[in-house]
Amino acid sequence: MPRKVSQRKKKSSTSENEMGASNNSEGTLTEISCEAVGNLLRRANKGGTSKKKMMPEFQPEHNGTQVLEPILQPNTLEAGHCSRNPMGNVSLDKGCLDSKEELDDSDWEDGIVPKDDHPMTIELNVTPDSAVRKQSHRASAKDKDLAELVHKVHLLCLLARGRLVDSACDDPLIQASMLSLLPAHLIQLQNVTKLTSKALHPLVSWFHDNFHVRSTNAEKPVCFALASALESREGSPEEIAALSVALYRALNLTARFVSILDAASLKPDQSCRPDASGSSKGIFNTSTPMVAKLKLDFKSPKQSLSSYDIDKVCESSLGRSRKSKKCSTTSHMAQSGDPPISEDLKSSITKSQTSETQDNDPESCLADKSHKSKRKGDVEYEMQLQMALSATTVGCLESKTESGANADKENFSCPSKRVKRVVSADTSTSSQLISTAVGSMKVGSPLYWAEVYCNEENLTGKWVHIDAVNLIIDGEDKVESMVAACKTSLRYVVAFGGHGAKDVTRRYCMKWYKIASQRVSSTWWDSVLAPLRDLESGANSGVAQFRPNQSISTESNTGHSFVPTRSSLEDIELETRALTEPLPTNQQAYKSHPLYAIEKWLTKYQVLRPKGPILGFCSGHPVYPRTCVQTVKTKERWLREGLQVKADEHPVKEIKRSIKPQKVQDSGADDYECSDSMENSKLYGMWQLEPLNLPHAVNGIVPKNERGQVDVWSEKCLPPGTVHLRFPRAFSVAKRLEIDYAPAMVGFEFKNGRSHPVYDGIVVCAEFKDVLVEAYAEEDEKRRAEEKRRDEAQALSRWYQLLSSIVTRQRLNNCYNNNLSSEMSTDIQGKNENESNAAVCADNDNNQSPKHHPVNKSGTDLDTSFDTPVKDHVHVFLKEYETFDEVTSLLTKRCQCGFSVQVEEL
DNA sequence: ATGCGGAACATTACTTTGCCATAT
DNA sequence: TATATGGCTTTGTAATGTTCCGCA
Predict the structure, then answer these.
(1) Parallel, antiparallel, or unpaired for β A462-467 and A710-711?
(2) How confident is the model at residue A905 (pLDDT cuts 50, 70, 90)?
(3) How far apart are alpha carbons A399 and A419 in whole angstroms?
(4) Which tens digit of pLDDT belongs to each residue from A84-105?
(5) I need a labelling partner for A436 at 20 to 30 A (CA). Which of A48, A237, A647, A746 fits?
(6) Nucleotide nearest to A747 (CA to C1')
(7) Nearest nucleotide to A144 by CA–C1' distance?
(8) Which bases of strand C have any atom within 7 Å of the beta carbon of a protein residue?
C-alpha cells in the first residue's frame, strides 16, 4: 500500500517534466491532485463534513479533466485548479473560489492562494497515506474471483500431489527397503494386534534417528525421490514423511500420509502482505512446487535451474527454511564443480530477494516498507552466511563424495546438528517465537506427517498423529501452535490413503472460527473431496485390518447401516470436535459462528428463542448456542413459504419500516403525517406458524385476494382445489368459456421506479383444467392457422405490390423511354423456361385473351385498368395464349385478365 | 505483536399492486 | 365516448459484509 504512495510522490517530483512531455500523465496528476485536495479538505473539515459528501464533488470533475485539457478549462472546479496549480498554470480566477464556497473557505484559500511554482510539493507531501492506500488497495470483485479461482486450482494441484505421494508410499520396493533397514526387534510390530500409540514409540524414534530432513532431490518423480531419500536417509520434509508412511504400511499398519495444503490465499490482498503469513505469497509459494519440479525434471541441471525456477522454489511456502535448503543445495553444487550454475543460483536468489518486494507492484519501493525489506535482506544475508559456512563444512567432509550429480548424498554423513543450524537460521525472524512455542525444537513448519490407526486407543480406535521428523507422537494438539509459530496457516489438513483423501483439519485445528473464512466454500470443497473420501474410506476400511474378529467392524457397512466403520467413527470424532469447539475470545467471531452466538451480533431478522442456556461470556456478553437463534419474518414473507401466522400470535419483534419516498412532494405537514402513519414491520418466528390454510375453491369459483388475484409465490400458495395454468393467453380462453379465474401474480419487478406485479397465467379450479387445456390447444391451433393464413395473405399482397410496381415502372419506361425495355427482369412463372431475361409489360390490347373481364374493357386508362380488377387474382398463363416472335425471339405469355409477359429466349 | 472496535466503503436484501397522453 | 396503448425519471434505503486503521 505505501508503494502507491511512493509512486505518487515520485510522479509529483517529476510532474513538471511530464507536463511538457505528454498529456497522458495529466490524468494521473489530476487524480493525485484531486486526492490531495480531497484529503486536505477532509482533514480541514474533520468531524464536520463527512467524506461521503466530499468525494462526489471531485469525481466528475476529475473525470472531465482526464478527457479534456485541464489546463485550458476555464470552468473547472477546485480540483482542476489544484491540479493545474502545481503545473505552473496558475491564474487563479475568482470564480473558482466562489464556486466552492460551500466548503471551508479559509482552509481552501490557505491551500491554493500561493502562486509560486511549488505548491505541489506541499500538497502531495501532506497526502495522507491512508486515503491513497484505501483507494488503491481495495480489491475489486474481479480480483476476488481471480483469487478464488487460483485458490481452488491450487488446492486441486495440492490434492493431486498428495495422492501422488500417497501412491509412492505404497510402492512395494520402497516398503521392502524400509523393512530391510529396520532392526529385527522393531519388525515385531507387525504382529502386534492391540496397537497403541505408545507401542509405536520405538519405531518412530528409530525412524527419527535414521532419517533426516535435508536438501531436496525434487528433480525426480516422487517414487524415485523416495528411493533416493531412502538410500541417503535424507530428503525433503515431504519425502521423509512419506518414507515414514511407507514404513508403517510395510509393517502392515494402517497409515495415511497427511499434508497441510498450503494453498494460495483465498483473499486477493493477502499476497500483498508479506508478513501476514509466511506462506501466502502467491501460488508458486506452495510447499510442493510441482510445476517447477517437473520442469526441472526434463532438463539438464544447467538449463533447468533458471532463475525463474529458483525464484519459485525460493518463494515456496516452506519459506525460509526451504529457501535455505535450496541454497545449501546450491552450495553443494558449487562444490561439486559447476560454478556457472551456482552463479546462476546465487544471482537468482538475490534476484528473488530483491524482486520479491517489487514484483507485485513494480512501480514501487517505498519508505514505509523499507525496514521490512531490510529485515528480509538481513535474513537472506544470514542465510547466505550459513550457506557459506555449511558449504565449507560440507566441503571438508566432502572430499569423499564422488559424483556432483548426486548432490543429495553429499550430506549423508553430515550431522543433523548442521541441518538444524541452517534451519534455525532460516527462521531467524521468528526464531524466538518458535523457541517459545515449541521449546528447543527448531524446525520449520510441519507440513507433512503421518497418521496411524491405533485400534487400542480411545476404546473404539483412533487415528494417531505421528510426526516422525519432529519425533512427536499423538501430538495433534501441538500442530496448531507449531504451525502458528511458523506463520503458516492451517486451513486444510488432508489425509491421503488408498489413492483417496479426507479432510481432517478438525483434528488439528482447535480454533476453527479463525480459519473458516480462509477456506473455500464448503460445498465446493466437499464435492471435490467426495470421490476421494470414498476411495480413502473404502481402502482404509478394507486394507490392513488388524484383527478379523475386532469388535469394531472395519468392513464397509454395506449390509448393516449401523455397523460403525473406521471411517464413520472418524467422522463422528471430527464432528464431535466441531461441536465442542471452545468459545472464541473475541466478539467478532460470534458474528457468523456456526455454534455460538451473542445477542449483540444478531441481525435484524434474528431473535434468541429460547434465550438460554448461557454457555459462557465474552467481554461480558452472554454466549448462547447458535441453535437458539431463530429467523423471524413478516407475515407476507412467511406466506411465500406457504406458512401463515397462527391466530392470537403476537409479533415477537417489530422493526421500523422504511418510509416510502413516494409522496414526499407535499409539504412538511404531509411529511409529518407520513412519519406518523409509518408502521412497524411485525415479525413472527417459526414457532408461531402453521401451514397455510387458504379457503377451498367451491362451485368452480377461485378464492381471490383483495385485489382479485392469487399470489402464486409457490405451489403452496395455491388455494386448494385450484391449479395454475401458465399459458400466455389462458385468460381469454377462460373468459370465452366463462370459467372463473384469477390472474396469477408470481412476483414483482421494478420498472420506472416502482414495483410492478408480474403475472404469469391464471389460476382456475382444478376441475376446469382439462377443459381449459383442451380449449387452449384448440384455440392455439386456430390461432396458428389464422397466423399462417395472415402470413400467406401478406406474402401474396406483397408479391402483388411488387409486381404492380414493376409493371408500372415498365409502363412508364415504355411510354417515355422505349430503349430501356429490357431493364427489368423477372421470373414470374419460371416453370417452362430457363430464361434469364424477361421483359414484362402490360399489354392492354386484350386482343387474344379477353373474355368479359372488366379490366379489358376499361379502355385506355392504364392506371385504373390495373388497380382494381387484378386484385386477388393469380395470373394464369395458358399455353394457347402464348405467341412467339421468331425475329425478336420474344415469347409473349398472356393471362386471361389481359396481363402479359414477354420472355426473351436465350 | 495482537486483537478490538470504529470508520469507510462495497454489496446485498428488502421494498412491493401507475398514470397520463394519445390513438383507436 | 370508452378503451387500448405506450412511455415515463428511474428505486431508495437500510442492513450486512469487508477492509483498514488507530488504539490499548
Answers:
(1) unpaired
(2) low
(3) 19
(4) 333 333 333 333 333 333 333 3
(5) A237
(6) B16
(7) C18
(8) 8-22
Taking C1' of B14 and every protein CA, the nearest residue is A658
Q: Please, where are the H alpha helices in A473-629?
A: 476-485, 505-508, 512-515, 522-542, 566-579
CA distance A96 to A498: 76
Question: Is it true that domain A694-816 has CATH number 1.10.3720.10?
Answer: no
Nearest residue to nucleotide C16 when comparing alpha carbons to its C1'? A603
Rounded CA-CA distance A411/A231 in Å is 12
Give the model's pLDDT for residue A779: 82
A571 CA to centre of own chain = 29
In angstroms, how far is C13 C1' from A601 CA?
A: 21
Q: Report chain A's C-alpha Rg in angstroms.
A: 43
**A755 CA vs C5 C1’ separation (Å):** 20
Calpha distance A437→A486 (Å, rounded): 9
User: Tell me: the pLDDT tens digits for A183-200?
Assistant: 888 888 877 778 888 888
- Residue written as grid cell 461480558: A620
Å: A420 CA to B2 C1': 29
pLDDT category at A591 given cuts 50, 70, 90 is: confident
Residues within 7 Å (Cβ) of strand C = A 1, 129-130, 133-134, 137-139, 144, 267-269, 517, 591-592, 603-606, 655-656, 658-659, 661, 750-753, 755
Answer whether any strand B atom is within 7 A of the Cβ of A588. yes
Q: Which of A156-170, A196-210, A407-421, A451-465 has the lowest mean pLDDT?
A: A407-421
Is A71 (CB) below 7 Å from strand B?
Answer: no
Q: How many CB atoms lie within 10 A of CB A835?
A: 16
Who has greater pLDDT, A539 or A641? A641
Amino acid found at A325: K
Question: For residue A425, with 0-12 CB atoms within 10 Å meaning exposed, 13-18 middle and 19 or more buried, which class applies?
Answer: buried
Q: Where are the domains of chain A?
A: 2-138, 587-689, 694-816, 821-904
Q: Which residues contact A337 (CB under 8 A, 6 or more apart)?
A: A404
Q: Residues with Cβ < 8 Å from A641, sequence gap 6 or more?
A: A713, A714, A716
Q: Is the C-alpha dihedral spanning A194, A195, A198, A203 positive or negative?
A: positive
Distance between the alpha carbon (CA) of A520 and the C1' atom of B6, Å: 28
CA dihedral of A482, A487, A491, A495, whole degrees rounded to 10? -50
Give the number of other CB atoms < 10 A from CB of residue A580: 8
Of the candidates A182, A163, A165, which has an alpha carbon nearest to the alpha carbon of residue A250? A182
Average pLDDT for chain A? 63
Distance A278 CA to B1 C1' (A): 15
User: How crowded is residue A592: how many other Cβ atoms within 10 Å of its Cβ?
Assistant: 12
Structure-block grid coordinates of residue A135: 483507494
Residue nearest to nucleotide C22 (CA to C1'): A130
Burial of A35 from C-beta contacts in 10 A (0-12 / 13-18 / 19+):
buried
Between CA A668 and C1' C23 the distance (Å) reads: 44
